[in-house]
Structures are given as C-alpha cells and as structure tokens.
Known about the structure:
Largest sheet: 4 strands, mixed
Number of domains: 1
Structural class: alpha+beta
Number of helices: 2
CATH topology: Translation Initiation Factor IF3
Distance between the termini: 12 Å
Strand order of the largest sheet: 1-3-4-2
Order of helices and strands: EEHHEE
Amino acid sequence: MILSNLEEVPGRQIVEFYGVVSGSTVRAKHIGRDFMAGLKNLVGGELKGYTELLHEAREEALARMTQQAQSVGANAVVNVRFSTSSVAQGAAELFAYGTAVRVE
C-alpha cells in the first residue's frame, strides 16, 4: 500500500478513485506517564512517554485506514492527513484519513 500526503503518487497515474478512507484510535493517558510528565515539566525535556503514545496511536490509525483502503480494492491512499481531538478528560482520538485510489 502506497501512502502519500500529496494529491498524487509521483511517477504513477491514478486510474481509479474509491473515496475517503479513515482509521482512528482513542488513547487514554497512563498514570505513570502523567507522573513522569509532571516531573519533566519541572526540569524541562522531552516527554518520551507521550511521544511513544502518540507514535503508537499514529501507527494504529494508519493501519486501520490502510486496511479499509485494501478492503475497497485500493493500492494507494493519497492526500493522507491526521487530526486529533479530545473525547474525554485524559483521552484523545487520533484520526487518519485520505483518498483511496488505484495507481499504475
């Protein structure tokens, strides 16, 4: 599966459009990560626990979007984008979406 944040796949021609596909995951903060983040806020630095959490969430949302694209017969997704939103206190949704296409 080819993923592109462009409206096309360079060097390939789009021969069929299948429409919008998406994938999402909702993740909650972990109390251990919150404690360590609080300490980091005092001294500064990267909040590695949250970085890992967001990386895992992006990967899961992309995998779900890719699975949906494959189920409609696509071999690529163009114009891939991410969005986040708060769904509850301490929980956020990470949403990946794009246009499923077939390229040659």
